[in-house]
């Protein structure tokens, strides 16, 4: 991998954020703005070069991840500076998490019976909110811990991928199936249907990837559809969400308010956007997590929104390439699972924001504010990076072997 | 592993496809619906922009200033109250009481959201206050006034609610659009409540049963699917039985032996009911959909309520027969019925209604000029030719005689629709028609609500149409340029 | 900074940000494309990269050509379907017959697919059945499915210290498997035998020692060398 394209990309990303934060700093005229204008590009440069030397990470994936995280910080600084500062801290935690996951991935091979340990841990995690959690936005999946709110289901995501990959690569159907069903049940109990949809989707797709059993996969899809219909009948708030999806103007004041404001933001942004720091992004409810894409489209325009989508596509492409280059099926499945988790989450939330599918209440990976979301997505990229570094080692070994 | 790699690639392409769908759907939504979402009253951004930008002026096609902003920042309309009341539904008012009037729907132009960056820069450096773009509409405000007067002058319509639309059937330009009851926008601004339901734009936002004017669609359908019937003769006995119901004609008249043209001109319900049953619901509905019924109108310049033709299967013969003469849950707005008449006049081609002629930047540069857009082809040209003949006959020897003038070739169709409103029976009088003259290619649609017993479309709406045609003949320079 | 000046500035910067955004996207995809090409270029000249060894066909059962060589990657499936990593175009193999995975210092682990069975070094391997051996193949191990007999040859550097447990030649003959030596009776041995000489290590077959023969003073090699085991 030649260093040159890496250099150019990093420089462009640094330039982008330098000018963007500078512009915002001019508006706000506080020292933090200028500090961010210098720190964020420096962190991007530093991260890429320092980590790149230490670990054999995949530079492109890391650059893209940085771009998206910095975009999140930018938008948050624009609308709610306090959240931006928190986000910077979470980014740091995320980096640490990413490194931990890289090591975890590399060390995985030597641990046996880890699969069952992981299942137990994940169930414990998921059960926690039911016991000590608090309910927000109709879903009971948050824990408040010394002033910081954590969403355990985000971290179980990582464990789920590993569990699925582990058992699927050993062709042991029952353990991962029971685990997946258990997780789904927990999530249903917590009424976090968006995350349930995500888990279900990724499990189904990984099942297809490991067994190539198309009839069963389609059956699973139908089963999921059936469960969705049942959920529609059973849960009142699902009914409301679907009704709002079809015609948000019918209940503008309450339920439809979010999506209507989002649509108006999209429309006022049109192609070129209204300008960074202008527009009224704060009128959109939940602008900092679910609807951050609407804010991006309002301020930067649809063209830029499509660029962000293309960055996600590049992330998926890279993750798939890494998964395809892996030597063992466990690594491949883990990398692919992590990639699909990020990709599916992005699709679900952007689809909800532009009214393609009903809103589900999950966040946009890397960009949304929120510690749990950012850290868990960084850990997912850590998994992918870990597999990439293993691939590098394997490739070196292969080259060495063939030369003997 | 090889299999796994191949599947990974498939899944990656699946995701690429999903993201492509996202992009396409997002682009399509914003392109078609963007303006509507933006102009919605709930949009707080407009309120913010209103503080800093002076709204642009609105002119009619002859340069009459319909709306402007004075030095104090208030919105000012025409001097005469008559004039203001005539165009208020088209224009909207600053309180946004009228939904989707030009002042609301074209917020983007009026409040400078379309200004280019160069202009912004220029304004900033020269220190002038920002102004929005000026709009030049296709309407003739004096025609609108004339139409309101016409409603008031005729005894059969004075004091009644209704709506009327005048449209150029070759280009799609809207010449006039009125709705009664109407109100004075300045009096509302001053905090005085107007009575009735005056804010509703009945021309585009309300749908009514078209009554016998729907026979245009039925006849077109018959000419397409049962062409041999054009020469045949029918027998109207005045008491056609369908599913135990009797089809009556207006005044219980029995028409006897007629061919299709005569049946059309005297508006015989019996014959058209039988025709509809023979056509079958599916084919009649297909023709109606060719004319734009059941379509989701997404016109660029205005919001028009969708017209309906029932889509249930298994409708009884009575319901289908009643559809033949425009009853039985069929509904259309006066705007759409005008487009239907216009389609006949334009040899089967239905134009999209246009309201904006030109948009000018405050500097005088043209930002947008209008162009006509075809909405759809409603019928073949040869069928349209036959329909033109029929509609001429209506005015020369049929129920539409009171719409005709000696010096113009008027073609039309009357209609009397029965309905109930809050449990009480109410009748609507319709006239739709056009001028067969390439120099004055105009179609009209008149609706009168709640007409008295014994009155029909021919006695209420048709005379108003004549007044309109007279105006068009007297002042051609005002309506064609 | 005044609001107006800021709005003008921000509106002007729109174009800058969109341009940069597009450039970033283009650079990303260029990078992806370049990596793709480089990977192809690098591996084009090294067809052996990613392989641990080869299966040599000793007996084909009609459709397989004797002496044919099939490369074996680290992990994958084996069968007659073209989707498999080791494609054996023989009717004796099911479309997906076995799963294999190379474990360092232990050998190539063989697991039979559902409803299938095979013989590894004479020991029966069934789908999760009572496998009489642990199903690991090393350099020189024999895999038999139906009439097809394949011998695994690992690349140097991937060798495994242990040697396969093999049945005595008489029993091997019963299965119709080729024997390592001709005519020299060999005491049956059980258990693991450490390779004593370089040659044994290299060929994967043990050498008959002088002491082990009854009255036969000649030292006979236990089999042919790597290159020409075709019979």
Describe what you observe in this structure.
The complex is a heterotrimer of chains A (404), B (481) and C (231). With 404 residues, chain A is mostly helical. Chain A has one domain. Helix content of chain A is 76%, strand content 3%. Chain A is built from 15 helices and three strands. Chain A has helices at 3-28, 31-55, 59-79, 81-107, 114-132, 152-169, 173-189, 193-211, 214-234, 236-246, 257-269, 292-300, 302-324, 329-353, 371-403; strands at 134-136, 139-145, 148-150. In chain A, a hairpin with a 2-residue loop joins strand 1 (134-136) and strand 2 (139-145). Chain B is α+β, with helices and mostly antiparallel strands and 481 residues long. Helix content of chain B is 40%, strand content 20%. Chain B contains 17 helices and 19 strands. Chain B has helices at 2-39, 44-52, 81-91, 102-105, 107-110, 117-126, 141-153, 185-189, 215-225, 260-266, 269-279, 281-290, 317-324, 334-345, 381-397, 457-474, 476-479, and strands at 53-54, 58-59, 65-69, 75-77, 130-131, 134-137, 162-168, 174-180, 233-236, 240-242, 245-247, 256-259, 349-351, 356-360, 366-369, 374-377, 410-421, 424-435, 442-449. In chain B, the strands form six sheets. Chain B has a six-stranded mixed β-sheet with strand order 4-3-2-6-14-15, with helices on one face. In chain B, strands 8-7-19-18-17 form a five-stranded antiparallel β-sheet, with helices on both faces. A two-stranded parallel ribbon of chain B has the order 1-5. In chain B, strand 18 and strand 19 (442-449) form a beta hairpin. In chain B, helix 9 packs across helix 11 (269-279), helix 9 crosses helix 12 and helix 11 packs across helix 13. Chain B is globular and about 80 Å long. The mean pLDDT of chain B is 88. Chain C is an alpha+beta fold and 231 residues long. Chain C folds into two domains: 1-45; 51-178, Tumour Suppressor Smad4 (Sandwich). Chain C has three helices and eleven strands. Chain C has helices at residues 3-44, 169-174, 198-203; strands at 51-59, 69-73, 75-79, 86-87, 98-103, 107-112, 117-120, 123-126, 136-137, 142-145, 148-154. Chain C has a six-stranded antiparallel β-sheet, with no helix packed on it. Chain C has a five-stranded mixed β-sheet with strand order 4-3-5-6-9, with no helix packed on it. The relative contact order of chain C is 0.10. The model of chain C is unreliable at 175-197 and 199-231 (pLDDT under 50). Classes of the chains: A mainly alpha (404), B alpha+beta (481), C alpha+beta (231). At the A-C interface, helix 1, helix 3, helix 13 and helix 15 of A face helix 1 of C.
């Amino acid at each position: 991998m030649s260093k040159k394209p890496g250099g150019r990309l990093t420089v462009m990303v640094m330039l982008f954020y330098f000018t963007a934060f500078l512009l915002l700093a001019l508006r706000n005229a506080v020292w933090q703005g200028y500090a961010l204008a210098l720190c964020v590009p420096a962190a991007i440069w530093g991260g890429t070069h320092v980590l790149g030397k230490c670990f054999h990470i995949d530079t492109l994936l890391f650059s893209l991840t940085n771009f998206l995280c910095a975009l999140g910080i930018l938008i948050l600084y624009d609308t709610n500076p306090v959240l931006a500062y928190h986000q910077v801290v979470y980014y740091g935690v995320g980096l640490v998490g990413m490194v931990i996951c890289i090591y975890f991935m590399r060390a995985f091979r030597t641990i046996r019976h880890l699969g069952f340990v992981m299942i137990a841990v994940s169930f414990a995690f998921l059960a926690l909110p039911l016991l000590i959690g608090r309910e927000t936005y109709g879903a009971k999946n948050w824990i408040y811990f010394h002033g910081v709110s954590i969403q355990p289901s985000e971290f179980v995501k990582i464990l789920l991928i590993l569990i699925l990959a582990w058992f699927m690569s050993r062709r042991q159907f029952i353990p991962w199936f029971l685990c997946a069903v258990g997780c789904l049940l927990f999530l249903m109990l917590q009424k976090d249907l968006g995350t349930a949809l995500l888990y279900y989707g990724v499990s189904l797709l990984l099942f297809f990837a490991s067994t190539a059993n198309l009839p069963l996969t389609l059956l699973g899809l139908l089963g999921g559809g059936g469960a969705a219909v049942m959920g529609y009948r059973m849960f009142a708030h699902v009914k409301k969400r679907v009704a709002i999806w079809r015609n948000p103007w019918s209940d503008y004041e309450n339920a439809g308010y979010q999506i209507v404001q989002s649509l108006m933001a999209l429309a006022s942004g049109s192609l070129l956007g209204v300008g960074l720091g202008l527009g009224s992004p704060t009128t959109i409810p939940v602008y900092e997590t679910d609807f951050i894409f609407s804010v991006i489209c309002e301020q930067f325009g649809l063209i830029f929104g499509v660029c962000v989508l293309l960055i996600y596509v590049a992330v998926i492409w890279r993750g798939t390439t890494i998964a395809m280059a892996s030597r063992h099926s466990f690594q491949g499945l883990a990398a692919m699972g992590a990639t699909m988790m990020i990709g599916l989450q992005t699709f679900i939330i952007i689809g909800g924001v532009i009214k393609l599918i009903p809103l589900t209440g999950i966040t946009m990976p890397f960009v949304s504010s929120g510690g749990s979301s950012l850290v868990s997505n960084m850990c997912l990229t850590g998994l992918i990076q870990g597999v990439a570094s293993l691939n590098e080692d394997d490739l070196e070994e292969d080259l060495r072997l063939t030369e003997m | 592993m090889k299999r796994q790699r191949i599947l990974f690639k498939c899944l990656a392409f699946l995701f690429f496809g999903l993201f492509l769908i996202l992009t396409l759907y997002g682009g399509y939504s914003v392109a078609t619906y963007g303006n509507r979402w933006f102009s919605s009253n709930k949009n707080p951004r407009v309120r913010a922009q209103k503080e800093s930008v002076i709204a642009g002026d609105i002119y009619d096609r002859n340069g009459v200033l319909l709306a402007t902003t004075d030095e104090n920042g208030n919105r000012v309309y025409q001097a005469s109250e008559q004039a203001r009341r005539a165009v208020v539904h088209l224009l909207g008012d600053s309180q946004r009481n009228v939904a989707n009037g030009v002042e609301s729907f074209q917020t983007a132009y009026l409040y400078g959201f379309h200004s280019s960056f160069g202009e912004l820069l220029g304004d900033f450096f020269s220190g002038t206050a920002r102004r929005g773009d000026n709009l030049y509409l296709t309407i003739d405000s004096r025609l609108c006034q004339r139409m309101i007067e016409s409603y008031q002058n005729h005894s059969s319509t004075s004091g009644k609610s209704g709506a009327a639309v005048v449209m150029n059937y070759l280009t799609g330009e809207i010449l006039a659009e009125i709705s009664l009851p109407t109100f004075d926008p300045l009096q509302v601004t001053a905090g005085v409540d107007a009575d009735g339901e005056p804010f509703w734009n009945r021309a585009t936002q309300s749908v009514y049963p078209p009554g016998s004017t729907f026979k245009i669609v039925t006849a077109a359908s018959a000419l397409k699917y049962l062409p041999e019937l054009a020469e045949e003769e029918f027998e109207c006995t005045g008491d056609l039985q369908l599913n135990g119901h009797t089809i009556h004609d207006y005044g219980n008249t029995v028409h006897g032996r007629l061919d299709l043209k005569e049946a059309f001109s005297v508006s015989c319900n019996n014959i058209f009911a039988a025709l509809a049953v023979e056509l079958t619901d599916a084919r009649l509905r297909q023709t109606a959909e060719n004319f734009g019924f059941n379509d989701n109108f997404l016109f660029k310049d205005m919001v028009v309520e969708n017209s309906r033709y029932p889509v249930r299967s298994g409708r009884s013969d009575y319901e289908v027969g009643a559809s033949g003469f425009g009853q039985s849950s069929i509904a259309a707005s006066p705007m759409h019925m005008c487009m239907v008449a216009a389609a006949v006049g334009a040899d089967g081609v239905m134009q999209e209604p246009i309201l904006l002629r030109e948009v000018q930047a405050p500097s005088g540069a043209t930002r947008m000029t209008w162009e006509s857009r075809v909405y759809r082809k409603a019928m073949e040209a040869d069928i349209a030719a036959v329909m033109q003949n029929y509609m001429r006959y209506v005015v020369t020897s049929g129920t539409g005689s009171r719409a005709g003038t000696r010096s113009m070739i008027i073609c039309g169709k009357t209609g009397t629709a029965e309905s109930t409103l809050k449990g009480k029976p109410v009748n609507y009088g319709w006239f739709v028609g056009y001028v067969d003259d390439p120099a004055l290619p105009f179609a009209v649609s008149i609706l009168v609500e709640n007409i008295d017993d014994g009155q029909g479309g021919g006695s209420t709406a048709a005379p108003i149409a004549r007044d309109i045609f007279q105006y068009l003949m007297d002042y051609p320079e005002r309506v064609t340029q | 900074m005044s609001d107006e000046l800021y709005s003008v500035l921000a509106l002007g910067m729109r174009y800058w940000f969109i341009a940069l955004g597009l450039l970033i996207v283009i650079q990303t995809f260029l990078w992806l494309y370049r990596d793709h090409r480089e990977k192809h270029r690098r591996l084009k000249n090294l067809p052996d990269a990613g392989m641990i060894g080869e299966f040599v066909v000793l007996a084909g059962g009609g459709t397989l050509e004797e002496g044919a060589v099939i490369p074996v990657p680290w992990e994958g499936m084996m069968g007659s379907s073209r989707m498999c990593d080791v494609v054996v175009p023989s009717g004796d193999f099911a479309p997906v017959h076995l799963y294999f995975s190379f474990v360092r210092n232990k050998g190539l682990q063989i697991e039979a697919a559902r409803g299938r069975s095979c013989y590894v070094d004479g020991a029966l391997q069934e789908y999760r059945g009572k496998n009489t051996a642990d199903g690991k193949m090393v350099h020189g191990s024999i895999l038999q499915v139906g009439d097809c007999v394949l011998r695994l040859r690992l690349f140097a550097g991937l060798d495994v210290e242990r040697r396969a447990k093999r049945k005595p030649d008489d029993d091997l003959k019963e299965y119709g498997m080729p024997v390592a030596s001709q005519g020299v009776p060999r005491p049956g041995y059980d258990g693991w035998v450490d390779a004593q000489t370089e040659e044994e290590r290299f060929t994967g077959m043990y050498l008959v020692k002088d002491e082990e023969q009854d009255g036969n003073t000649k030292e006979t090699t236990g089999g042919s060398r790597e290159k020409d085991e075709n019979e």
